[in-house]
Amino acid sequence: MTRDEVFPSKYLKAADLKGKARIVTIESARYETLKGLDGKETQKIVLYFENVPKSLPLNATNFDAVCDATGFPDTEDWPGQLIELYPTKTTMEEKQWTAFASVVLPHARWRHRYHRHRRQSLSVK
Fold it and tell me: Model pTM?
């Protein structure tokens, strides 16, 4: 069994992408209280996507990336935006981790890619 099978998460992880980029539509962006690994509660924006069973809490870097890419600093304007999630490497505390990166697809570019990928829903357990 894999680690993800033994310890399933209700949140989307980079491993859920199975090494491939996925185009998703933001359904909502909710401000929620989450418990960190240290047990402390913290407030974060959590993205929910259409036809994806898991949500994605945003760190400050990914929040800023969505703001910059959409041109919308307010999360209330994010629903309906198509974004591409892809796994990338990041370094934290001198260790390299697989993490998320996201970009909003420009209209001319996403039309072809969205139709090609739209039947490939992000199936995660």
Answer: 0.75
